[in-house]
Design a protein that fits this description.
This protein folds into two domains: about 220 residues, P-loop containing nucleotide triphosphate hydrolases (Rossmann fold); about 140 residues, OB fold (Dihydrolipoamide Acetyltransferase, E2P) (Beta Barrel), CATH 2.40.50.140. It has eight helices and 20 strands. About 20% of the residues lie in helices and about 35% in strands. The chain is an alpha+beta fold.
């Protein structure tokens, strides 16, 4: 897929503060790309640099093959939807959407048609005459999207656009944004601190810490094969176990505290593996519990239930295992007839070498 945006060696300084530290990144034409990280990691600064609201202190930014040095925000093939939406409350929905067309030389009838098409695109057909201040949060977000898309940018920049919505509306709008991006076919770049949101919506994700990209991959790779403990702990829930690599090469022999010896593939060590002490990660859903009276299938480590958190469809158990400093979190589906275990219940923990990830420290 063709690279639409190319960033090479991008640095950004604010006095003594080094906000971006040598960002190298290519974003493809037509993909939904997310910048994910905690507050202060530099993701919004990077988005604003692409938009032209910030000038890099060093490095090169190209959009569609054109160097953006000295090109102001209003002349770039980008448009941004801000966290606050920036809706004008004294204007109607149609007037808000048409705001970007005020210097467009097309006749009024053509502009009105473009506004109607943009509103139809975001599911607000027939809302043009409604007062902007009378809209719900989700509707305001759609108006902001229509206003950005009516200018037909090559890149749509989204600065945490769903953060002000309640959980249910947020989940609805995540799906709507995915559908919208597929329909319009332009590149979306989303800034978010919400790991679940990034995993749901993105074709690829760049995880950022302290002005640097720690790992960039598709959602499944990022979740299943994080390259470090820091990335693993930021993306979902992960159990960490100490241990060692006894042999590294075409096969990797490991000894994991509380679980024992095993063999993992090189794909399970995304940052590589060298003999010596290391940290292993294992996701809660890749472990399972042997309930009292069940016959274990696979390798089993004995343990005792330390905590129980019931979520309706799922129950999360913290199980204490000898030789492991912290209890292992295990997620179990609440199937018909499967009891919810009490704290103190002796159980067996089923594990498999394929669920392990060798992490860099």
């Amino acid at each position: 897929m063709t690279a639409l945006i190319e960033l090479k060696g991008i640095h950004k300084h604010y006095g003594d503060y080094h906000a971006l530290r040598g960002i190298d990144l290519e974003i493809r034409k037509g993909e939904f790309f997310s910048l994910l990280g905690p507050s202060g990691c530099g993701k919004t600064t990077l988005l604003r640099t692409i938009a032209g609201f910030e000038a890099p202190s060093q490095g090169t930014l190209r959009i569609d093959g054109r160097d953006m040095q000295g090109v102001p925000a209003n002349l770039r093939p980008t448009n941004m939807v801000f966290q606050s939406y920036a809706i004008f409350p004294h204007l109607s929905v149609a007037q808000n959407v048409a705001f970007g067309l005020r210097r467009d030389p097309r006749p009024r009838e053509q502009k009105a048609r473009a506004v109607a098409d943009a509103l139809e695109m975001v599911g607000l057909g027939g809302y043009g005459g409604r007062a902007a201040h009378a809209l719900s949060g989700g509707q305001r977000q759609r108006v902001a999207l229509a206003r950005a898309l009516i200018l037909q940018p090559k890149v749509l920049l989204l600065d945490e656009p769903l953060s002000a919505l309640d959980k249910k509306m947020r989940e609805t709008m995540q799906v709507e944004l995915i559908k919208l991006q597929r329909n319009v076919g332009i590149t979306f770049i989303l800034v978010t601190h919400d790991q679940e949101e990034a995993l749901i919506m993105s074709d690829r994700i760049a995880v950022m810490f302290e002005g640097e990209i720690a790992q960039m991959a598709d959602p499944e790779t990022l979740y299943r094969r994080p390259n470090s403990r820091r990335v693993a702990s930021f993306i979902g829930k992960m159990n960490f176990l100490e241990g060692r690599v006894d042999e590294a090469g075409e096969r990797i022999l490991v000894d994991v505290a509380g679980l024992g010896r095993g063999e993992v593939s090189p794909e399970q060590a995304p940052a590589g593996a060298t003999p010596g002490p290391t940290t292993f990660g294992v996701r809660p859903e890749t472990l399972s519990i042997v309930y009292p009276g069940e016959e274990p299938q696979g390798r089993v480590a004995p343990g005792i239930v330390d905590e129980v958190v019931y979520y309706g469809d799922m129950t999360y158990y913290d199980v204490r295992i000898e030789g492991v400093a912290e209890p292992l979190t295990i997620s179990m589906k609440n199937l018909m007839g499967r009891p919810v275990l009490d704290v103190g219940t002796p159980v067996g923990v089923i594990w498999d070498e394929k669920s392990l990830v060798v992490l860099s420290r």
